[in-house]
Specification:
Belongs to the complex IV NDUFA4 subunit family. The chain is mainly α. It is built from 2 helices and no strands.
Amino acid sequence: MLAVVGKQLRTHPALIPLFAFIGGGVTMSMAYLARLAIRNPDVCWDRKNNPEPWNKLGPTDQYKFYSVSIDYSKLKKEGPDF
């Protein structure tokens, strides 16, 4: 398979940017999925020791990838402790 791709790239060099952009897109999407699996509080990998990880988040913890107008350092806790 790699020999066929290498032969195509040697005979058609205009395909190099296509492979580069598709490879970059695949890499970025896999990195984002890995970030969601590791950092998202909705994902629970250890149900025995921590069945509800979202309860351990403080009001100043930022878990979103990008927030436009919210400053997480100024938020105060509104609910009770569980």
